[in-house]
Design a protein that fits this description.
The protein is an all-beta fold. The chain contains no helices and nine strands.
Length: 108
């Protein structure tokens, strides 16, 4: 596992997302309402829309353009128009830093 520091934990807040780029891949780093941190591919599979600009509610992120919601833990879309999942990456938090491994895609 090759994890890259993307931000500090202090830069995130509950029910919010932050866009970062790791090795050329856009990633949405999301803190859910429980305080857990997730990392997903930042591009909605329905269109070329940044998910980090969307809305975080409970355990999902919603694309602001067309309303597709993706589960934070699995990347699975919950509703149309998206039907393809977004990749979900491994996240670790060490000493207040958020690290993301974009080489390893987590599977549900």
């Amino acid at each position: 596992m090759v994890a890259t520091r993307v931000c500090s934990l202090d830069e995130l807040s509950p029910a919010s997302a932050k866009k970062v780029v790791v090795d050329g891949k856009p990633v949405a780093v999301v803190m859910d309402s429980e305080g857990s941190v997730h990392a997903l591919g930042d591009t909605c599979t329905h269109g070329e829309i940044s998910l980090s600009e969307g809305f975080v509610e409970d355990d999902a992120i919603e694309c602001w353009a067309h309303g597709s919601k993706f589960e934070l833990a699995t990347g699975t879309p919950r509703n149309f128009p998206a039907y393809e999942p977004v990749p979900v990456y491994t996240v670790t938090v060490e000493n207040g830093d958020v690290l993301v491994d974009v080489e390893t895609i987590r599977t549900p």
